[in-house]
């Protein structure tokens, strides 16, 4: 059985790695630095999967600095997000949110998505308007 480092030397991984760099135009997808050394960052891990078996959208090009920051901060940020979900939702709600996030078609524009979600969740007037529209729609539905 190959070690992880041996798998990273595999031609299938090397081919996928180059494909991701080309897709991202050899630019860090967080800070848009095109001069620094790039790394391929895997957004999630699946047990027993080889690196070349993941879908392309599970990878992103990051400069060394952003890659290190992502690796160092992600576990704590994931705990924070999960804690927030647990405070506000039961399991069914969390499941619906996961489905909505998984099926969102515009998640490739991270800054836009974060701004819109933050705007909707933070602004009470927008929340009230969305809730009012929702209930008006319910009253119209036979």
Condensed summary:
By secondary structure, the protein is mainly alpha-helical.
Low-confidence stretches: none
Q: How do the strands of the widest beta sheet line up side by side? A: 1-2
**Total strand segments:** 2
Task: Summarize the main sheet.
Answer: 2 strands, antiparallel
Fold and architecture overview:
With 142 residues, this protein is mainly α. 61% of the residues lie in helices and 7% in strands. The chain is built from 6 helices and 2 strands. It has helices spanning 4-8, 11-23, 64-88, 91-103, 110-122, 124-140; strands at residues 38-42, 59-63. A two-stranded antiparallel sheet has the order 1-2. The termini are far apart.
Draw up the topology in text.
Blueprint (H helix, E strand, L loop, with lengths): L3 H5 L2 H13 L14 E5 L16 E5 H25 L2 H13 L6 H13 L1 H17 L2
